[in-house]
Amino acid sequence: MKRIAPLFALTVLTAAAHAAPETYTVDNSHTFPYFTYSHFGFSNQTHRFDKTSGTVTLDRAAKTGAVDVVIDAKSVNTGFPLFNEHIQSEDFFDTAQHPTITFKSKAMKFKGDQPVSVTGDLTLKGVTRPVTLAISQFKCMTHPVRKVDACGANASTTLKRTDFNMGKYAPGVSDEVSLVIAIETYKAAPAP
Fold first, then answer.
1. Structural domain containing residue 136
2. pLDDT reported for residue 164
3. Is residue 55 situated within a structural domain?
4. pLDDT-derived band of residue 68, with 50, 70 and 90 as boundaries?
5. What is the DSSP letter of 15?
6. Which residues pair with 115 in a beta bridge?
7. Burial classification of residue 69, based on how many CB atoms lie within 10 Å of its CB (0-12 exposed, 13-18 middle, 19 or more buried)
């Protein structure tokens, strides 16, 4: 019995260590939020943001998590410098007054061991609205090159531009915009 008690205590401590929340830092070089919209019905246009930062915290044992992402709105990339300037104007992102887009989660929903959605507040052009991002892909493993714990996901939602005071040319240029965040993260080093 004396030998079983320490073994039981070690098992409990090991399980508790594995159940602790883990924080991951956004890898800007592999994280690209992008958005798609109908351009007067001629075609569906897709543009992306080149600079994203933030953290993702996961507790897969407790089936909880948190997301805190900051997108640099000035990094919008349409493929054409002149259009980049146009889309940063007051009619659209108004990056002079609102240089960042933020998403702060309030809840993460799991199905089994996998997160399937995250709900939170999206702040765009100074307007904050609740949104739910559906997670279509999720994977955590040791990164084969960096040899550190890594997680990645694709998450998406549909927004209305008019909800964020960005309704110029709607409905010719579609009010509905599909937003996808392709994100990769690395486990943050523990605090000293």
1. 20-187
2. 97
3. yes
4. very high
5. H
6. 110
7. buried
Alpha-carbon distance of 192 to 182, in angstroms, equals 31
* pLDDT score for 191: 53
Return the CATH number at 57.
2.40.128.110
- Which SS3 state, helix, strand or coil, does residue 14 take? helix
> Residues 168-183: pLDDT tens digits?
999 999 999 999 999 9
Give one DSSP letter per residue of 62-118, joined into a string. TTEEEEEEEEEGGGEE-S-HHHHHHHTSTTTT-TTT--EEEEEEEEEEEETTEEEEE
pLDDT of amino acid 20: 85
Return the DSSP state at 17. H
Number of domains forming the structure of the chain: 1
